[in-house]
Amino acid sequence: MATVLYDYWRSSASYRVRIALNMLGEEHEIVPVDLLTQEQRSHAHLQRNPQGLVPVLAIDGRTLTQSLAIIEYLDETRAAGFLPADAAGRARVRALAHAIAMEIHPICNLRVATHAASLVGGGEEAVTAWMHTFIGEGLRAFEVMLSDGDAGDFCHGDSPGLADFCLVPQLYNARRWQVDLSELHRIFRIETNCARIAAFEAAHPDRVRPGTLGGS
Q1: For a Cys-Cys bond, which of 27, 58, 133, 158 suits 153, CB 3.0-4.6 Å?
Q2: pLDDT digit string, tens, across residues 187-203
Q3: Which residues constitute the domain of residue 75?
Q4: How far apart are CA 165 and CA 41, in angstroms?
């Protein structure tokens, strides 16, 4: 049965899953779900995911939602090595991944930031200030978390995994909002190492954007 990723090209959660699938060499079809036209609220998509979110992965006769759950499923069913073998290492990697996916990402979702700004009568400048505050604070904390001695070429040791799959898309978002990253030296080194890997490059939003070469 074909593997299908229901995806929005600029969604950082979808970006994480694209990296993981590419790292595995798992052949898959990308079906775009246009968030700008509210396609995620369509009856067809709500049948896939009642939350009306992306990504959704159809694989192994199952329909999976939530990017971290999807990546852990891939890890467990394909022996991918996306998490360390030891319990302490897995806890560390999950903490790093959650710091982005459960702390920075939810409050910096554009829908959330725009609504928060509207409550105080703010416009685009207020949204930008919100993003600078919460993305900046979150990534500065992530930088400190990497200083515990267990990072190597990547967030944990010398091979990319779950935490890296979360970090790279968050940096893409940070640059979209022109967040100052100049002091994040550990993060920048890891990002540079990830950028050398074809699986990360092929997952980049510019490579999968509908209407572009390689995009759906």
Answers
A1: 158
A2: 999 999 999 999 999 99
A3: 4-81+201-208
A4: 26
